[in-house]
Amino acid sequence: MNHEYDIKELLEKFYRNECSEEELGQVITYFKKQELTADFPNVEETEAMLSSDDLDDATADRIFRNIVGEETPVIPLYRKKHYPFVRYASVAAIFLVVLSSAWFLYRQTDTANNVGTSAAKPEMPNAITLKTADGKIHILKSGQNVAVLDSNGKLIANQEDGKLVYDSSDESESAYNTLTIPYGQRFSLQLSDGTLVYLNAGTTLKYPVNFKGAQRLVYLEGEAYFEVAKDKKHPFIVNTDDMNIGVLGTHFNVSNYPEDEHTEAVLAEGSICMFTKDQSFDPKTNLLLKPGEKGSYDRATKKIQTSPVATETYISWVRGELYFHNLTFAQICRKMERKYNVVIENRDAQLASERFNASFSDVPVLKVLGYFNEIRPIEYRISGNKLIIQKKKNP
């Protein structure tokens, strides 16, 4: 896609019916590719665009056919109460999906008949915990500034608000610590070599108090964004069971949740190598990723595939944002469970396999469900820490 124009400005012009023929062609091409790039407006930004309904029906129908094609089955859509109902064959309905909720919805049914009830999740603590080499468990709370001591009273690290900082001058014998982040929370860590690690909800990272030896090795289960301190003599290795990511100094994201089908690495800066547990770190022979690329390891086939991606969309979680790209609703439920620390039970089998693109800022879970309800009517209720979703009954 050509990014010489600002997509937000172009979409605003499109909705006001002020696009030239060339700009209109760019919009149609954008939607046909089913793209949702990092510069696409999120929910709050796009709601502000929908302050009027200026498109005439003839123009709307023409654009709609160009985007989805004559053969594409159309799904009835619904708008908020303060917007008039627009018949589903109009591009205004497309804008409801693409703009007011930052969605581009297309139906794609998976072969598996997954009802959408969340997959079994690993047991997680209810608080951020640090387990030190001596077996002691420390409870960490965001917003604190405290010293973390071992059982002998020796300083291990300092907590500075939402970050745990290790002292680079510590020359004592290396020992591994384990930091675990529960669902509903995020935390960050500065390792002894200066590497910054941002940990997502439901994540466990095992790492040494200080690095010794030829490699800087850490073990990850969950998701983390790494800003690795440069050290050409000591490569930094992230172990994710069957897959390893090796770097010398760079910024990248790794997602390795046990309930997911893939382990993914997305490179923001520098370069990284992906290699299996049967291989050694070697930039000359390992699979090398370039900035803007994603490497996806399929746990079933044991194969790695690479593809170009909008990097920002994969690291937006660091700011508490949600981004869904071509995900089934069942996969989206797992992401929401981690972020909001809830259990989601989806009783709508058809919805479970439908795929969505969406982006949200840091908003409550009920607001996210509210947007789903706008484009795909559902019923949902809360029972304790459980969200139960089912198909909306006809009135």
TrEMBL record:
Domain of life: Bacteria
Keywords tagged on the record: Membrane, Transmembrane, Transmembrane helix
Protein name: FecR family protein
Start and end residues of each FecR protein domain: 180-272
Natural source organism: Flavobacterium silvaticum
MF GO annotations: sigma factor antagonist activity
Taxonomic lineage: Bacteria, Pseudomonadati, Bacteroidota, Flavobacteriia, Flavobacteriales
InterPro entries for this protein: FecR, FecR_C, Ferrdict_sens_TM
Domain Protein FecR C-terminal, chain residue ranges per copy: 322-389
Bilayer-spanning residue ranges: 85-106
Keyword flag Endoplasmic reticulum: no
Keyword check for Transmembrane helix: yes
